[in-house]
């Protein structure tokens, strides 16, 4: 069997060929909550894209679409999607209670997800029309495509800034766009429309999203006590001294790129130079400052 046919069989099964009974919805909800809780609790995931499942929407969009398009009727889709989120979201918080310093206080974050849980009912009612795989289906899908493109672009910017941070999340968002266009539409015109919305969302996000910065700080090595009037400058405009604590010779720095620069500290007639290296390593922004001897 051709590779393309195997992929088509898989997508047809995933988006319309599953038996989405009530027991299946409940099991799906509990399993999703368990997986998400593991990502949030186990330290190895704390600096990876997987933790995003507990804070953002991209993974839940896919799970919701799977439920919606495997229901025979729109009302059924709305009810089962609503119940899926009504079960999974509070369970995520409940599973974290033993590992959270404040115990049940973690539920103070739940109202945000409760609002989205309530909104899943009308969204699933409309989303059910994806099953039709026609132009109406495309118009239903376009806001989802736009949202995924925005999130994917934000993640991609972060990846470019702090590689490979959020790389998996960026690929996952854009992968979903491709998956939905492939799975629900065979018409080339619908593919073009979906890709046009994706491109527009990417461009607008790049144009209007805020620039990325990192903030780091360190004490100046081998330096006499400086006065509060000490001036700090870099030979690269990408870096700025945000704050200087003269009592500790501690400088806080904002940067717009990772790399290195020469930092000059002028205090009256005295001048000190340092080699400063900025890097992203092990999931953290870091700075290393060493005295520059010419």
What features would you describe in this structure?
With 294 residues, this protein is of the alpha+beta class. It folds into three domains: 1-127, no CATH class; 133-211; 214-291. The chain has helices spanning 3-14, 22-41, 58-69, 74-96, 110-127, 135-161, 167-184, 188-208, and strands spanning 214-219, 231-234, 239-245, 250-255, 259-267, 270-281, 284-291. A hairpin with a 4-residue loop joins strand 3 (239-245) and strand 4 (250-255).
> Number of DSSP helices?
8
Radius of gyration: 25 Å
- Provide mean pLDDT, rounded: 94
- In total, how many domains does the architecture comprise? 3
Total beta strands: 7
The amount of helix comes to 40-55%
The largest sheet has its strands arranged as 2-5-6-7
Distance between the termini: 69 Å
Shape: elongated
Name the beta content range.
15-25%
Low-confidence stretches: none
Main sheet: strands, sense, barrel:
4 strands, antiparallel
- Would you tell me the structural class of the helices and strands? alpha+beta
H-E string: HHHHHHHHEEEEEEE
Task: Write a concise keyword list for the protein shown above.
294 residues, alpha+beta, elongated, 4-stranded antiparallel beta sheet, 3 domains, 8 helices
Short description:
This protein has 294 residues and is α+β, with helices and mostly antiparallel strands. It has helices at residues 3-14, 22-41, 58-69, 74-96, 110-127, 135-161, 167-184, 188-208, and strands at 214-219, 231-234, 239-245, 250-255, 259-267, 270-281, 284-291.
